[in-house]
Amino acid sequence: MAVMTYNDQLRHMFANVECVLAFDTAADYLGLTNGGFRAVAQIFVNKKQNIEGTEQILVPSLEALEYEEHNGLLCTTVNRTIIDLLEQNGDEQIIAESLANYYEEHGESFEGLKIPKHLQPKFEKYKAWALEYYEE
Predict the structure, then answer these.
(1) Is beta strand 20-21 parallel, antiparallel or unpaired with respect to 67-70?
(2) List of long-range contacts for 115-123, beta carbons under 8 Å, 24+ apart
(3) Strand, coil or helix: 50
(4) Does the structure show a pLDDT above 80 at 36?
(5) Is residue 94 a contact partner of residue 58, using CB atoms and an 8 Å limit?
(6) Percentage of the chain exceeding pLDDT 90
(7) How many helices (H) and strands (E) would you count in the chain?
(8) What share of the chain is helix, strand, coil (3-state, %, to 5)?
(9) Which H helix or E strand runs over 54?
(10) pLDDT given at position 89
(11) Which residues are 54's β-sheet partners?
């Protein structure tokens, strides 16, 4: 019997749930991180649902989010995920890893990212970490 990957678990968990994967969960699902244990799955919802093991972020409308369908689930776009991670002041490891992997996968460039002006100082900080990430 095949072992379920984390993404398989997410697809099973949210198969019939109206939600958009968010923050660390989105970064994991999109392959921006190198994986790791997450106690809860973070999702955007427009109404709270009784789903164990989730952190539900209530938003007025899912349609207003910047997301795409990715391997069977709705997930914030790569650009939006990185912006959300920077705005959230979340796990520094996840932010640095996400930027490092983005950089590697995009021809050693951050050019495709559109980071808002107010997040530029944070982006520059983590960008420097990301550039050193795989050199250690």
Answers:
(1) unpaired
(2) 115/82, 115/83, 115/86, 116/83, 119/83, 119/86, 119/87, 122/86, 123/86
(3) coil
(4) no
(5) no
(6) 84
(7) 5, 5
(8) 45, 15, 40
(9) strand 54-58
(10) 80
(11) 41
| DSSP code for 10 | H
Predicted confidence (pLDDT) per residue in 90-118, tens digit: 889 999 999 999 999 999 999 999 999 99
Q: Within 13 A of 39's CA, how many CA atoms are on the CB side? A: 1
Which residue in 61, 63, 64, 81 sits closest to 21, CA to CA? 81
Q: What is the bridge-based pairing of β-strands 20-21 and 54-58?
A: unpaired
CB–CB of 10/41 below 8 Å? yes
Judge whether residue 11 has pLDDT over 70.
Answer: yes
User: What does pLDDT average to over the chain?
Assistant: 93
Name the residue ranges covered by the structural domains of the chain. 6-133
Which of 58, 62, 31 has the alpha carbon at shortest distance from 42? 58
Model-wide pTM > 0.90: yes
Q: Residues 10, 42, 66, 110: what is their CA dihedral angle, to the nearest 10 degrees?
A: -90
In whole angstroms, give the CA distance from residue 133 to residue 19. Answer: 32
Tokens 């999109």 identify what position? 30
Question: Looking at this protein, which amino acid is placed at residue 5?
Answer: T
